[in-house]
Specification:
By secondary structure, the protein is an alpha/beta fold. Helix content is 39%, strand content 20%. The structure holds glutamine. The site of glutamine (GLN) has 9 residues, from loops.
Length: 282
């Protein structure tokens, strides 16, 4: 006799399986995965608890659940992540937007002049650039990334939100010889290389290293970006950067060492961690 797998039975089994694999919010994640696999919302899931699933439906659930059991991030499986109140497409190969980075958007937005020219270095999914464009209509935003996958994703996200971005392939300031901006923002890779192996499996095994690895002390990108930004800012223009935990004094020191910045500031994320450093070109 073949067993009958109702929605509820599959949900309970999935919850136990994910928990066993180390997934923290196993019950909630099991619900989201089943919703995605079955093409329903959570109310739909609840009202169908007693319904036996077909073999096709079971296979669809199994496919998504096994990806999550391998600790692939839920966002890659579901294909989206909320950032700054906007829904972004996410895809393997490109860093998933973090809520911590909303602090960078806020600190940049209050410093951007009307109709300003903005550059986002390492645009990734486009979340920072698009959130700024939505918050400040009239500004012009350029994003660059060393990853072509990222640029394609940023383009799709820009279209999704009805925003136009200039997207350029290249590393740091390389594509911008002779160009200047009113505001430069970046969330560069800042994890010290040796710490990468200590991160949770979702990040360590599934998110792109090139978006995370900041070199031996995590500061490689700041060492290049802070002095080079002075060649690409108009007088009075701002450089506003996301930083990792504990990096504020060292990065503020890099701003000071150039002698080319004033009004150097730091800002904390909602968790109280210094998350952003910025300064204004003299
Ligand atoms: N905040 C990210 C993390 O902790 C790191 C992002 C970055 O290196 N810029 O996973």
């Amino acid at each position: 006799m073949t067993e009958t797998w109702t929605t509820l039975k599959v949900l309970n089994w999935t919850k136990g399986y994910l928990a066993e694999k180390g997934v923290e919010n196993a019950r909630l994640e099991a619900e989201w995965l089943l919703c995605a696999a079955l093409g329903m919302d959570r109310v739909g899931l609840y009202v169908n608890f007693d319904k036996p699933l077909t073999s096709v439906e079971l296979a669809a659930c199994r496919a998504l659940v096994s990806r999550r059991a391998r600790r692939e991030p839920l966002q890659y499986i579901l294909g989206s992540q909320d950032f700054y109140g906007l829904d972004f497409e996410v895809a393997p190969g490109v860093l998933i937007p973090r809520h911590d980075t909303e602090t960078l958007v806020q600190e940049a937005a209050v410093r951007c002049p009307p109709r300003g020219k903005v550059l986002d270095i390492g645009v990734g999914s486009g979340c920072i650039a698009i959130a700024l464009a939505k918050a400040l209509p009239g500004i012009g935003i350029t994003g660059c990334d060393a990853s072509k996958d990222a640029l394609e994703l940023a383009e799709r996200n820009a279209a999704r939100h009805g925003v136009s971005l200039e997207l350029v392939h290249g590393s740091l300031f390389e594509p911008f010889t002779g160009r200047t901006f009113d505001l430069i923002v970046s969330n560069p890779p800042y994890i010290p290389t040796a710490d990468l192996d200590t991160l949770q499996p979702e990040v360590r095994d599934h998110e792109p290293r090139q978006a995370l690895d900041g070199g031996i002390d995590g500061l490689d990108f700041y060492r290049r970006m802070v002095p080079e930004a002075l060649c690409h800012l108009d007088a009075g223009g701002w450089l506003v950067l996301e930083i990792g935990m504990g990096q504020a004094p060292a990065v503020a020191g890099l701003f000071e060492a150039t002698g080319g910045f004033r009004e150097i500031f730091s800002a904390r994320d909602p968790g109280g961690i210094e998350r952003v450093i910025g300064g204004r070109k003299v």
